[in-house]
Amino acid sequence: MTDPRHTTALSRTPLYSLAIALNARMTEFSGWEMPVHYSGITHEHHAVRSTAGMFDISHMGKFRLVGKTVLEQLQTLVPSDLSRLQPGEAQYTVLLNDQAGIIDDLIFYYQGTDSDGSQRWMAIANAATIEKDKAWMLSHLDLTEMTFEDYSADQALIAVPGPGAVAKLQTLVKEDLSGIKAFGHLEGTVLGQPGFLARTGYTGEDGFEVMVSPEVGIELWKALLALGVVPCGLGCRDTLRLEAAMALYGQDINDTTTPLEAGLGWLVHLDSKGDFIGRSILASQKQNGVQRRLVGLQMQGRNIARHDYPVIANGTVAGVVTSGTQSPTMGQPIALAYVPTEFSKLGQPLEVEIRGKLHPAIVVKRPFYRRPQTSSF
Amino acid sequence: MALEYPSDLKYLDTHEYARLDGEIATIGITAFAIDQLGDIVFLELPEMGDAIEQGEKFGTIESVKAVEDLNAPVSGTVIEINGALLEAPEQVGDDPYGEGWLLKVRIDEDINLDDTLSSDEYRAQVEGE
């Protein structure tokens, strides 16, 4: 097979050799050579749901924003009210174009304000959109009063999700992690070295994402492995995030979908903040309603709806599947799809065209999976 | 762990095999295909009595990440389907040359195996990929 993408060298994270040592099956992911699975997607998926798993996500974008006007300037780029954040809090949000289409989804972390009034912020964004995000932000930020640094390649980033993840990670971290709320973060001490820990993730489970130097990242991976944390690849990352109905950029959301269409209305704070790029479109969509919505679909048989399959309502093509898989947790095929608002109500029967045949599906509540709310730590 | 390719089977370069026993052929997919696909989550097979055509698609196999056609190594009429696998497709990978068989077909009289590969030819091909 000749795949033109393989003619250019793929990037590798600091943890690449550890994946190879564990016989990971590697795949190309937006220019990176990443593990798709180690022991098997299903096994890794269940490990994250039942105990603890770890993902190398060092390929993700990492930005540092420092200065007196960071908040003021970021407020114009996102629909979320970032002024609500206290030091140590974070917000999942989106960068919007002037049509309120999503440039990327990302998390902004407010670390605090120094005595001279200089604010310290960080952002973690998708790997595939690093250059796009950077170009957008640099063209809109006034850098006379703040600095913007892309340090994506400088640090390792390891996600450790699962009901047993925090207890295991705690044994390697000096600070008490029990008091950190969801989306909380701190600069702490990991294996005696400086690290950034955030209680965020992309699987629907509790856990932390840990940013450390490449050298400490390698030691952290080995230490977690010794504690029985299961190494996981991008394959189960996709099934886990889909069960949790978390959007995948480039698939469920993109430059042409708005956060209100994508079911991300909870991060749009029109009432509590001033102008931002895309505001007028969102205000109009909020007032008049959206034409289409991203809904959860549950297939009624065993056939699996997948990305780009047509969704049929009343015998005509009405929408499209954006993500679909066999849910390992539920043992049923699940999907996300854009459908016209009139067909988006819970319980709405629809059909998905799979290899030329129509298969029944119904609109179900998102997320497909919600973790039991009994924190073990 | 080295993958096995039994020498008594005929192979297609699309990773299906046929085990010939008189006028009956048992059709399945190879250990290499299972290894490449990963956990199998869905199978679509023809019905009893359906005719399948050598080199043509007769069904679909899906792993968590991939959707692949199943192609017929021989032409014939379907006389048996491994129905247990339709309900538990993940088991196809446990024993692809035994319990993980997919179909049994009555081979057409004018059988032509020119387009199939021997075990050695198939091994040489997949190990070169």
Distance between the termini of chain B: 17 Å
Domain count of chain B, please report it: 1
Briefly note the structural class of the backbone of chain A.
Answer: alpha+beta
Helix content of chain A: 10-25%
CATH superfamily membership of chain B: RNA polymerase II/Efflux pump adaptor protein, barrel-sandwich hybrid domain
Order of helices and strands of chain A: HEEHEEHEEEHEEHEEEHEHHEEEEEE
Low-confidence stretches of chain B: none
Q: What structural class do helix, strand and pairing data of chain B support?
A: alpha+beta
CATH class of chain B: Mainly Beta
Give the total of beta strands of chain B. Answer: 9
Describe, in plain words, how this protein is organized in 3D:
The complex is a heterodimer of chains A (377) and B (129). With 377 residues, chain A is an alpha+beta fold. Helix content of chain A is 19%, strand content 34%. Chain A is built from eight helices and 19 strands. In chain A, the strands form four sheets. A six-stranded mixed β-sheet of chain A has the order 10-11-12-9-3-13, sandwiched between helices. Chain A folds into three domains: 144 residues, Gyrase A, domain 2; 93 residues, Alpha-Beta Plaits (2-Layer Sandwich); 74 residues, Aminomethyltransferase beta-barrel domains (Elongation Factor Tu (Ef-tu), domain 3), CATH 2.40.30. The two termini of chain B are 17 Å apart. The longest helix of chain B has 9 residues. Chain B is an alpha+beta fold and 129 residues long. Chain B contains three helices and nine strands. Chain B is globular. Classes of the chains: A alpha+beta (377), B alpha+beta (129). At the A-B interface, helix 7 of A face strand 4 and strand 6 of B.
Describe the structure concisely for a colleague.
The complex is a heterodimer of chains A (377) and B (129). Chain A has 377 residues and is α+β, with helices and mostly antiparallel strands.
Keywords:
heterodimer, A: 377 residues, alpha+beta, Gyrase A, domain 2, Alpha-Beta Plaits, 3 domains, 6-stranded antiparallel β-barrel, B: 129 residues, OB fold (Dihydrolipoamide Acetyltransferase, E2P), 3-stranded antiparallel beta sheet, globular
